[in-house]
């Protein structure tokens, strides 16, 4: 089966990208398709702790990331440069991922059969 | 005094040029700017909307010099400033 890479590159909650992304990911994983999740740029803000999205009547994304374990999604990659630019600590996010330099990040991504960017 | 209302992430849309004559309100994804240390210098005053900060878990990362406001204070600012610009 072809593997799928999903990229999260946009911030919650201004647009609905963040929801479509996790829906696609979990739907594919539920059919045992190999999936990987990549974070870069503002997408990393989806993983900030202590979100309370009901303050703006949005669906809280942080609970959804708890499902990744359940679906055995372990291939998760963070772009190091994006983390540094945003002053975000990879050890203090909702989920753990492998921190890669942008070069490594793209090399890894290039090994995917299909890529969808949200 | 001019009021600039920002709605997008500073990484998506560049911040307005710094001016002491501008008051800035960070709303929606623009509250990300309230957690980036480079943001504050050069503007008259910067406010950030409490609910948008809370929703994104960014309240604790707030940098110094940015004042958190609620919707009512937002409206008051629109009454005391002119012109108002959606940036």
Tell me about this structure.
The complex is a heterodimer of chains A (118) and B (87). Chain A has 118 residues and is α/β, with parallel strands linked by helices. Chain A has one domain: DsrEFH-like (Hypothetical Protein Ychn, Chain: A, 3-Layer(aba) Sandwich), CATH 3.40.1260.10. In chain A, 31% of the residues lie in helices and 18% in strands. Chain A is built from five helices and five strands; from the N terminus they run βαβααβαβαβ. Chain A has a five-stranded parallel beta sheet. In chain A, α1 links the parallel β1 and β2. The mean pLDDT of chain A is 95. Chain B is α/β, with parallel strands linked by helices and 87 residues long. Chain B has a single domain, classed as DsrEFH-like (Hypothetical Protein Ychn, Chain: A). Chain B has a five-stranded parallel beta sheet with strand order 4-3-2-1-5. In chain B, β3, α1 and β4 form a beta-alpha-beta unit. The longest helix of chain B has 10 residues. The two termini of chain B are 15 Å apart. The mean pLDDT of chain B is 94. Chains A and B meet through loops of A and α1 of B.
List the defining traits of the structure above.
A: alpha/beta; 5 strands; B: about 90 residues; alpha/beta; Hypothetical Protein Ychn, Chain: A
Structural class of chain A comes to alpha/beta
Q: What's the shape of chain B?
A: globular
The poorly predicted ranges of chain B are none
What's the structural domain tally of chain A?
1
Q: Strand share of the residues of chain B?
A: 25-35%
Oligomer: heterodimer
Overall number of strands of chain A: 5
Q: Please give the order of strands in the largest beta sheet of chain B.
A: 4-3-2-1-5
Broad CATH class of chain B: Alpha Beta
What is the fold named in CATH at topology level of chain A? Hypothetical Protein Ychn, Chain: A
Report the CATH architecture of chain A: 3-Layer(aba) Sandwich
Strand content of chain A is 15-25%
Which structural class do you get from the secondary structure elements of chain B? alpha/beta
Mean pLDDT of chain A: 95
Instruction: Evaluate the radius of gyration of chain B.
Output: 12 Å
CATH class of chain A: Alpha Beta
Mean pLDDT of chain B: 94
């Amino acid at each position: 089966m072809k593997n799928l890479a999903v990229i999260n590159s946009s911030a919650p909650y201004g647009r609905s990208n963040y929801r479509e992304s996790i829906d696609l990911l979990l739907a594919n994983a539920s059919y045992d398709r190999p999936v990987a999740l990549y974070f870069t740029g503002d997408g990393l803000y989806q993983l900030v702790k202590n979100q309370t999205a009901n303050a703006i009547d949005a669906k809280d994304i942080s609970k959804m990331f708890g499902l990744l374990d359940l679906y055995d999604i372990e291939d998760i990659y963070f772009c190091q440069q994006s983390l540094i630019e945003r002053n975000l600590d990879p050890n203090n996010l909702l989920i753990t991922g492998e921190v890669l330099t942008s070069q490594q990040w793209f090399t890894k991504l290039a090994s995917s059969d299909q890529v969808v960017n949200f | 005094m001019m009021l600039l209302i920002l709605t997008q992430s500073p990484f998506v849309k560049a911040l307005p040029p710094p001016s002491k004559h501008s008051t800035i309100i960070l709303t929606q994804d623009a509250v990300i700017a309230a957690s980036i240390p480079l943001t504050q210098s050069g503007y008259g005053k910067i406010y950030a909307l409490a609910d948008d900060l809370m929703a994104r878990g960014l309240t604790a990362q707030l940098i110094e010099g940015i004042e958190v406001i609620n919707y009512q204070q937002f409206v008051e600012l629109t009454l005391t400033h002119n012109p108002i610009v959606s940036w």
